[in-house]
Amino acid sequence: MLRIGQFELDLPVVQAALSGYSDWPMRAMARRMGAPYTICEVMIDSFVNSLKDRARTKRFLMVTETDHPAGAQLMGADPAEFPSAAARLVDAGFDVIDINFGCPVRKALGRCRGGFHLGQPDVALDIVRKVRDAVPERVPVTVKMRRGMDDTEQSRDQFLQIFTGAFDAGVAAITVHGRTVQQRYNGPSNWDFLTDLCADFPDRTILGSGDLFSAEDCVRMIRETGVKGVTAARGSIGNPWIFEQVKALLAGQPLPPPPSVAEQKEVLLEHFRFAEIAYSGKRAVKQMRKFGMRYAAWHPDADDVKVAFIQVGDVHTWNSVIEDWYNSERSGNYPVCPGLP
């Protein structure tokens, strides 16, 4: 059981916020496949504040009855922009506001967003307090962090200042990625850091992130580090089965067999149906093409199927890939590493 504010989740693995991926269709699919909680792809605070009530932008604030609890992740530079954006996301139906202090991409850092705030604790905590004050008490506020800007002692001290200060300000949980901002996505995630952090703060709700490419990775992080839960990020792209797989492993059961080709087809069709609800026809195909390339890893002819999805340009070619490659009862294969490109 994982608790985030008022929400008790029956599985300690949640769908992470993923830029370009964890849109409403992916989150709806994850919920259908066992995710107890999902987080929308990160949104810039000023962007949220400027959104108009238009059909082509409705997907950014899309929350349906079956999505709850659903989190929205905010990123920005100016503390003054965060409160109104957070309030708007709550009005749209999101149940949790997650603040991003972890994004390591150069564009975010160059605009003083995301992981940049780990180097300025006073600003980071000002953002946390403003968001906490801006949303109703019933709405949990959470934070996503990396373990620091770099491996210096100063960076460690700044991390702890934000970590402890955020909990003192009323955040319900903090997700900690085991890499530094400087590392970006290179090198291993430092799980020992998570182990030490959990030992030092056993009563805090700490979620772990980093190098979780499979269900086995998720379970291993929980058991080895002591985190209360984990966020499935790259390992969940094209792999909504990860949630039921983790559930089985935590219950002491063997890893379930990989989904058959027929089962994969059913999920692909449902995911595409969700995409057509959220996007126009052309945009739905474009979005689903990159998902198809990741789903292909489960197919017994993975390389050929991936090439077929790469060539998809419209609904007709998408349907042709499904018809040509997914009309069988063949067994699927576990990818060597489903979270990697």
Summarize it.
The chain has 341 residues and is of the alpha/beta class. It has two domains: 2-250, Aldolase class I (TIM Barrel, Alpha-Beta Barrel), CATH 3.20.20.70; 261-325. The chain contains 13 helices and eleven strands.
Structure write-up:
With 341 residues, the chain is an alpha/beta fold. It folds into two domains: 2-250, Aldolase class I (TIM Barrel), CATH 3.20.20; 261-325. It is 42% helix and 13% strand. The protein has 13 helices and eleven strands. The strands form two sheets. Strands 3, 4, 5, 6, 7, 8, 9, 10 and 11 form a nine-stranded parallel β-sheet that branches. Strands 1-2 form a two-stranded antiparallel sheet. The protein is globular.
Write the CATH fold name of the largest domain.
Answer: TIM Barrel
Major sheet details: 9 strands, parallel
Q: What is the CA-atom radius of gyration, in angstroms?
A: 20 Å
**SS strand fraction:** 5-15%
| Helix/strand order, N-terminal first | EEEHEEHEHEHHEHEHEHEHHHHH
Mean pLDDT: 93
Low-confidence stretches: none
In the residues, how many domains can be counted?
2
CATH C-level name of the largest domain? Alpha Beta
* Strands, count: 11
Secondary structure elements and their pairing?
Blueprint: E1 2-4, E2 7-9, E3 13-15, H1 24-32, E4 38-39, E5 43-44, H2 45-50, E6 70-75, H3 82-92, E7 96-101, H4 106-110, H5 121-134, E8 141-146, H6 153-168, E9 173-177, H7 191-200, E10 206-209, H8 215-225, E11 229-232, H9 242-250, H10 261-278, H11 281-295, H12 302-310, H13 315-325
Parallel strand pairs: 3-11, 4-6, 5-6, 6-7, 7-8, 8-9, 9-10, 10-11
Antiparallel strand pairs: 1-2
Helix pairs in contact: 1-10, 3-5, 5-6, 8-9, 10-11, 11-12
